[in-house]
């Protein structure tokens, strides 16, 4: 009889062994996972009746299939995302890419831009380059790939995208982040774009992720913030066993995985001030947002959290504390990450934040926040007090338990059933293919999560009905939200790692009313009115919506504001606080329309295509 | 004569509970030095003495088994397993020997193999409470919570009213979200522990946390206060006490508790964070900023993102 181990002990075992044994004797400090990410303790594997992990199971046979996968019918399935090799031995192959919904040709219908990854072979011209895709909305439920004609192929290792009108000409431009030089695709107003990133001074290099646009200094021009992730050298990649990275950052639950992000050198973030002449100035250091510690930035969002008309800046960092910068209204932003409570979750622990969203989900007039995290960790919902104080309410809100085994990326507050309460959508997918070979209670491909807002800060998970979009297991990364069909329902476009995208069409059976508002700024407000706050009162309910750009994971959603109105067919009042702080009030609007509201002449018109 | 005497002692040692109980060393004229070393838990020196002995008496199975045990206690699980393998060539292992082997695997965080040998241990001796208990803990660690509950219940049959097993039963129930049963088990473990001279803070801590998570901080508070009383050096206990007081709006008391937590675990981030939050709630913004600055400084350095539970490091 031999008791000798059948395998060599893990090299990562460097802790006091006898101490571990006595941990066995009781107590809650048990089963830390360690490795390259910050996550919670290994939890109980939750499985369904067919022994599938809940991340790829737990479906119901009946119910309202609130989303349907219409990818193929819409003509999006021919394009595929691709990045690196299937084995996923490098962190660069795990991140995936984002998606933007924007109306590039101003025909009143949302178009779709999907960012692609790349491979080492493609980058070194040993294989055909991969390209991102621009899909034009045909107004009939289908889309046409117009990438090449538009000149937005971005044959680089793409990560994220935002759509914003940086030159304030009324036509949305695209900023695409890459591993390598970024792109600023200026909209030529004729269906084509020109990359002006180099001239504009925003091409950077390195590893850029989820950008955001906002007018932080109130000069009427959109500025640009770009988080930096980590230093990465393709010539000396951080492979397990390589001497470029600590081996204990290359494991998860004792299993060898790709290395990082811990152990990699983090890279700084960048704030670019828009000079108004087609160029930008890097003001990261003087504004106070340069990220001196080198946290692993993945997501960012300019959003006015204290209602003073100047946007704060949120940065979601992977396995390091998040940033919340207070806008001091003098061109500087002050780090109040820990003061606000946003740096960490309610347990005081930094999370592997992938995505971020902000919305008034309690209809209190103040914004709350949501962030996405790794598996073995709950997704975080923060209640906001309007004074830059945030409290983690994930457990009491009812999203913590179910969300824990999921590895979530994109996140959005969407009122999918138009009842006037903003619901919460998470797009999910693991980074380790090894998840399917382990009893971790999670899976590589995962179904999305939709939590229905039932009021008073509480949420219920929406059933994943078999055959519906919520029962699709995906390798989701970026996701954007918007009314793609101009039918008064919020749809979701997901960019999946290594495969076609997914278009989830909202088919909720509800019969509630709705309204959408497209805002056109003027004067000291940027043309797209990014930063505007809108308060809609109808049926005794007052809701808030903010025009934002960025957030989710590396993505950019419908710039039009959407409000579910429940049973109210008439809107009593719309109050708009424009980015230049002027206030416009509109009374008595009929529901179930898309309105275009202009700051210049205070006009309110139906969107032509509606 | 010397060999026989030593082997006789070693058999008694080998039969002793394998882990957290000190083996009783009987009189052994031939090995007083080893006896003394084991008795004083001088494991490294005992290993040396046993190696010396075995170099001359390699066929003594009990000495080999004792070497395995002492190596386990000396925190050398790989060497211990080799010693046990050698010993098994000389004599079949006992239930306690299997328990010790499993303990080596626990140290190596190889819980699957630990479970394998613990199952052998309980099959060989179904009245071995330590083996049942460790089996439950191992299964808990393997996320086999139903099996763990069964093992803890076996342990309680063999050793009734054992607060340790009952408390761990609560942990397994809590993992399975069987909250009422978990709460009941913690409560029972606390009651059974009343008779013990040395109080274990853990059931109080876990029961307090469980009750707080159900939205009843006021009801949780006495348990956390008792936990702090029983474990005054445990930063996690003080942190959770402070958080609960903060939830109750008793900010100044929260600050006191959280200051204790920060002093007990100065390099852990969460106590500083929660202390900062308590200061902020109390309107003491300057002190809050100081704490947040500490957290920021600690982050990414040689700090801990979790607060240690020092009763169970």
Written account of the structure:
The complex is a heterodimer of chains A (610) and B (313). Chain A has 610 residues and is mostly beta strands. Chain A is built from 9 helices and 39 strands. In chain A, strands 6, 7, 8, 9 and 10 form a 5-stranded antiparallel β-sheet that branches. The N and C termini of chain A lie far apart (79 Å). Mean pLDDT of chain A is 93; it is low at 7-34. By secondary structure, chain B is mainly alpha-helical. Among the domains of chain B are: 23-92, Serine Threonine Protein Phosphatase 5, Tetratricopeptide repeat (Alpha Horseshoe), CATH 1.25.40; 228-313, Serine Threonine Protein Phosphatase 5, Tetratricopeptide repeat, CATH 1.25.40. In chain B, 72% of the residues lie in helices and 0% in strands. Chain B contains 17 helices and no strands. Residues 1-30 of chain B have low confidence and may be disordered. Chains A and B meet through helix 1 and helix 7 of A and helix 5, helix 6, helix 8, helix 10 and helix 12 of B.
Question: Descriptors for this entry?
Answer:
heterodimer, A: mainly beta, 5-stranded antiparallel sheet, B: mainly alpha, Serine Threonine Protein Phosphatase 5, Tetratricopeptide repeat, 0% strand, globular
Instruction: Predict the CATH topology of the domain at 228-313 in chain B.
Output: Serine Threonine Protein Phosphatase 5, Tetratricopeptide repeat
* Largest sheet properties of chain B: none
Biggest interface and which pair forms it? A-B, 54 and 70 residues
CATH architecture of the domain at 228-313 in chain B: Alpha Horseshoe
- Unreliable stretches of chain B (pLDDT < 50, length at least 5) are 1-30
What is the tally of beta strands of chain A? 39
Q: Count helical runs of chain A.
A: 9
Helix content of chain A: under 10%
Radius of gyration of chain A, CA atoms, in whole angstroms: 23 Å
The N- to C-terminal Cα distance of chain B equals 44 Å
CATH H level of the domain at 228-313 in chain B: which superfamily?
Answer: Tetratricopeptide repeat domain
User: What class would the helix/strand composition of chain B place it in?
Assistant: mainly alpha
C-alpha geometry of chain A: globular
- The share of residues in extended strands of chain A comes to 25-35%
Total beta strand runs of chain B: 0
- Tell me the helix content of chain B: over 70%
Largest sheet of chain A: 5 strands, antiparallel
Output the radius of gyration of chain B.
Answer: 23 Å
CATH class of the domain at 228-313 in chain B: Mainly Alpha
User: Average pLDDT across residues of chain B?
Assistant: 87
